[in-house]
Design goal:
Blueprint: H1 19-31, H2 40-46, H3 60-79
């Protein structure tokens, strides 16, 4: 997912895949410092969306949990003195 504050009204699905493609997406994300969290139920819900589609309102709670996870990670990194 990607969210550009001020540009998007909701986060957008920017990558998805199954099997080897999913593994490659995760590998690229980790190599670029993107936090990765496994959530099989959310994956099933998001897999029905088209690429670059905004996340529908009924998934906002799940997305909010992911964003809270990412913000908490960023806070930990920031508090440890590392670059964010």
């Amino acid at each position: 997912m990607k969210y550009e504050h001020g540009e998007d009204t909701a986060p957008r699905l920017v990558a998805k895949g199954r099997g080897e493609l999913a593994e490659k997406i995760i590998e690229i994300a980790k190599a670029n410092g993107v936090p990765v969290r496994e959530d099989k139920q959310l994956v099933e819900l998001l897999s029905s969306l088209e690429l670059y589609q905004e996340i529908p309102q009924e998934l906002y709670k799940a997305v909010a949990e992911i964003l809270a996870f990412i913000y908490a990670l960023n806070r930990k990194v920031s508090d440890s003195g590392k670059e964010v």
